[in-house]
Predict the structure.
Amino acid sequence: MPAAFFLAPGLIDLHTHYDAQALWDPSLSPSCSLGVTTVVAGNCGFGIAPNRPKHRDLLLKNLSVVEGMDLEALRAGVQWSFESFEEYLVALRKAKPWLNMAVFAQHSTIRTAVMGEDASHRAPSTYELEQMRHEVARALRAGAIGLASSFSPNHSGWQGAPMPSTVADHQELQSLIEVLGQEQRGVFMMATGPRVTPEELASFHTLTGARMFLSTVLTMYNDDKPELGLSYYERVAALQDQGREVYIQTSCQPLSFEFNLLDPYLLYSHPSFAGIKSADEAGKRSHYESEAFRKAFKQDLKNPAVGVLFSGRWDRIFVGHASHPKVQRFESQSIAAIAACCGQDPVDCFFDLALMDGLQTEFLAQLFNANDDGVQPLISHRAGLITLSDAGAHLKFMCDAGYGLHFLGHWVRDRQAMSWSQGIARLTSEPAQRYRIAKRGRLELGCWADLMLFDPIQVGISPVQRVSDLPAAPGHKPASRLIRRPQGLAGVWVNGTRVFDGQQSIDGLVGPGQVLDQFHWGMQP
Ligand SMILES: [Zn+2]
């Protein structure tokens, strides 16, 4: 027995993508066993409501790519009992989530509801834009926690089409954000990429009064440009000093992606991959074999677009799991090291290995936040808000749902980046306050009993594990996903009901979570 356990408020995870999963897995696994008691979904403007029946499959196809979810699992798992955002919240309540859940109004989903197949390809007409504004207002009145959008170059959907919001212009974006001001409700969250600057978000704050939260890999620590991430934090802090409410969503873990060349999502932002996004397996293979393709990819890497996930750091791509014995002997080595050893260009080395392995090789990419000394100033910075787990998404490639336990074990205990009470506040009362989530994130009389009990000596997370438990059509094999397990976590309670007992989540539980729907500006957090 440890000398003492710590009882803390449950974690508030502001950046998840549980929109679809909540309908087939109300436990919101694995977050329910990782200390989280409240989640926010609909981030980056992706989700499933509002919808028109004829566009539903398109929504799922887009989600399957941009959020790395198995399409057949989505088709088998989502029961469409809702069209409007309001009806979606009703469906969520009926599903009885284990954790408290709030949902954003979603730019891409609303664009699809109004514009259908055209949503990824053109600007809206004046009438369509008016419809979109109307849908944002409806969602806010129904209880959305705010509006979310993305201009990220890394967000592409089905067959490589851009996610709908990423083709919008600034005028459209501003016009939708204005609805927050008119309704006096909600915050604005955006995967900005390089197209929207902190200063522009500050001007949206001045215009509307809504709090602004940005997420982009440009704010993460990157060995290639060690000053860049921190410079964003300094810019945002300067804006805060002028009274502008802008914050950066901060990731506290190395951003690592597992991927193979059958589904190289990570590389899709390079123009040379345009033809690969929609190719079948044989088509992909012939691309990878072709000299012309490799030449084009090498050219892309000489001059990568700003904000893309992979910019040519082959020393950060590792061979994970391989099938062919000739490739297996390179497991755990970086492409840069293997290429140097074989006297090959890394691009050729990468494709040759994968082809030799029937494209089965699982690669591991550790692209951002891979250097603790570089990350520490970011996770302690007042311009940031600790979140960005992406829980419920990128299931094939990664699992950062345990970001909070990692933060406590790694940053607070091992590196002593801050005190325990500061660390716990960063994960609980700070996010609750910034997003106006009332009566949560604190252990106080009158607050809800969202709690976690942990051993400070043990707290942390396991390495990723693969489990095959996604929904499947009858007679089909369930698809797999990556999860993590907690270390040193003794219990989690949501609204006073225990959902995790230190070993496992509680069997047969009727979810005690609430669907949160009160976020107007007059309320007290
Ligand atoms: Zn996201």
Summary: The first helix runs from residue 21 to 24. Residues 15, 17, 43-44, 390 surround zinc ion (CB under 6 Å). The CA atoms of residues 42 and 155 lie 14 Å apart. The first strand starts at residue 6 and ends at 9.
